[in-house]
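Bit of a strange request maybe. I'm writing a small parser for structure token strings and I need a real example to test against, not something I typed by hand. Could someone generate the tokens for this chain?
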Amino acid sequence: MKLSYESLKDRAAWEAAGVKLPGFDWKEMHAETEARPTWVHFGSGSLFRAFHAMLQQSLIEQGLVKGGLYTAETFDYEIVENTYAPYDNLTLAVSLLPDGSMEKTVVGSVAGALRADPAYPEDYERLRDIFRSPSLQLITFTITEKGYALTDLHGAFTPLAQADFAAGPHKGALAMSKVASLLLDRFLAGGVPMAVVSTDNCSRNGEKLRAGVVTMAEKWLENGLVPEAFVRWVENEETVSFPWTMIDKITPRPAEVVEKALAEAGIEDLGITVTAKGGYTAAFVNAEKPQYLVIEDRFPNGRPPLEKAGVYMTDRDTVNRVEKMKVMTCLNPLHTALAVYGCLLGYDTIASEMRDPALHALVEKIGYVEGMPVVVDPGIIKPMDFIHEVIDQRLPNPYMPDTPQRIACDTSQKIPIRFGETIRSYAARPDLDPAALTFIPLAIAGWLRYLLAVDDEGKPMTCSGDPMLESLQSQLAGVELGRPETLGEKLRPILSNPVLFGSDLTELGLSEKIEDMTRQLLAGPGAVRATLERYLKN
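Reply from user aminoacidic:
Good idea to test on real output. This should exercise your parser:
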């Protein structure tokens, strides 16, 4: 069996392989979506296919909507070319359960995958037509936090952003430029309201997305490239809303062990590929089953009944509290600590790290001991239940092929929220002192040690992609493993940078502690393990 619309006509064969098939007519869905598009998602990777597309599929199967959705890729066009077109836009979603079993579902709610770039005129003009359509209600995003960034480590506009400011609509390279251009099309076509919804895994994601789009529009106005009325339309959340969200579903790179299991079940040609830009993709996605999506309910042109698919629809304050609970305390800080130390200690899965007593203890200390005193209780989800599920079930799942190397990507973009917000919460409380923290500083020191690209055995190690990697490594040039004295004062400019940590750590009494920890981690081969165990023992 091969994943295609034609192959799915043999329902008995697919169901015999344990695969659940879409409960609707694909051609009817496609025709409805083409005639009356309601939803476009930017970022065509695994999380979209395992989560957003599954939500819409559930609504179609319940008879609550008739159409599917489009996906648009702004960065890595090989994902569209390798993963969607050859498989009729179908995906095989595989949920990896803790008992080793798999739940397999064909996702058929994607009506089309488009390359969001004028270099591909057929795709791009179709996308422009969709944005002009009054039926379009929402666009959503999973483009990672760096997809919204227009500034560098020092808060200055990047050369790419400046180039897009000058180039104007439909001529830029950045996602924010492309989205602003498409919104201009909608404005000129009558300005029917719509919702612009980030579902990326970052704090105050709606605020970040709005800042990126509005800044692009304002710079174009300054350069005389768009009418002022367009900027006022984008700024007005009665016409263009930017709801905040919290999303949670661990979706690792496609794993060979899963591909092999699917082949043994008779499903062929699902090939894992690595794009020229380093993206891992396949016709299947593997993910954990637990998932959470909480959305601020502000949709000026209506929306699908997402609550019927398990989404929490609520107010901004509740979204913010849920997001803070997860990103600041109950999951993301634990993930980042495991990522940097896992890379240093030679681990290749998060689950195997959780069997390491020292690393297991580290995340418990960061979560239960240092995080929970300032955890935000959102009311709709209990923090202690959530963190127990994370530490006791989700992270240790031996069948989840998630890697510390994947989680370590873009750590500089994550640190200000994942650790910085907890540090700031301690500073804001008269009964707490950030200088008393131990394990969050130890995680930060681990990241600084990781930036040297040398593992705990003293062997060269490849650091995961990060927009600040080159700049940070240049600031640490000359630091050597086995010679802690070479660290000198090199950390002071880094630790005092509020862009990186959300505050100046030197002012909060943490810099000397982190510098001392980093020197201990630099003592020589084996120092990472020894330092971890020493602090955990104490």
